[in-house]
Amino acid sequence: MPVAAWSCLRDARILDVSQLLPGPHAALALSQLGADVIKVEQPGGDTVRSMGPNAFAQLNHGKRCISLDLKTEAGRNALLALARDADAVIEGFRPGVMDRLGLGYGALSAQNPRIVMCSISGFGQTGPYAADPGHDLNYLALAGYWAVPAQVDDVVARPRVRVSDYAAAAYASLSLAVAIMSARQSSQGQHLDVSIHDAILAWTAGAAWSAKCAGHAGTGTPGVMPDNDIFETADGRHLVLGIMENKFWLALRECLGRSYPELQSPQYQTRAQRQQRKQEVNAMLKGIFASQPLAAWQATFAGTDVPFSAVLNADEVFDDPHVQARHVIRPLDGGNTMATRFPVKFSGGLGDIPARVAALGQDNDAVLAGGGWPCRDAGA
User: Fold this and answer.
1) Which CATH number fits domain 13-205+326-368: 3.40.50.300, 3.40.50.360, 3.40.47.10, 3.40.50.10540?
2) Which of 189, 216, 235, 239 has the maximal Cβ count within 10 Å?
3) Nearest to 88 by CA among 189, 3, 170, 19
């Protein structure tokens, strides 16, 4: 089926002048929701290309790709020509760079008053850190990500995915959709200032404030639960218990209580009692789960109402039957790489954007030949 034929973004035109993760991911999401996206790369290409074809493909499949040297008059003029018929431009330079190139919001809106410019930067367009360099870990550190106690035996370790970048991409795509639709009603665009630091702070602030209010309580804070944790098994694998509501503790006790009678102790009956004995409850569970391999625990918990999950490795994730059934993953390049579909199911259906992954500058001729916005099928 056509991509999101019913979508209000179906004829939205977006220039993606960003690189790495936040901007390209935001543009990809809008593309999956129906927008027509042209990726504009500098002559050397998006830095993510150097991280391998898989990394680039996941964030940029389905986009037409052109290469422009925005430091030259010809490159600037070509971008401005495309901007005249565009709904939005996404850029990810440090504050001030687009203005110095002659491509800031003022220059773009002079060409197209209804254009929306989305600037994604580390710390935003204003503030004492605005000009500072940074990447995901910097924003997490300053936004209090590690100020939030998470486990009884807590450690400071890097997240496995770029959490703050994805947070910024989510806010950017949501804000772009609203701003584009608003501009179509009012014929007046606007400049969106997306700070990666602000975005992740919006996620961490509530828990960090709770930690602040708890003072130096550390693992005594309410968010640290001894039975809602990751546990190592006898074969060096790991499992997760997602016990928050007390009914799930009772389900665990019913499942394991005969083999591990210590779980039946009256002093662990309620959440409040377990919170008062975090270290001993957590140590007890560690000992229990370390006594058998992961496969044995999978068999034990199968069909129960215990929120148990095996920690899957990379080989197992894509073969998981639920992943297969939900069809979130799609193959690219003949199955040599993969991408994710938009992870929300619309009853109207979204369809798939093209699996095509363009080479650097592959669509220059098709996109730039007419001096204006080309049809969606050009270069497909």
Assistant:
1) 3.40.50.10540
2) 189
3) 189
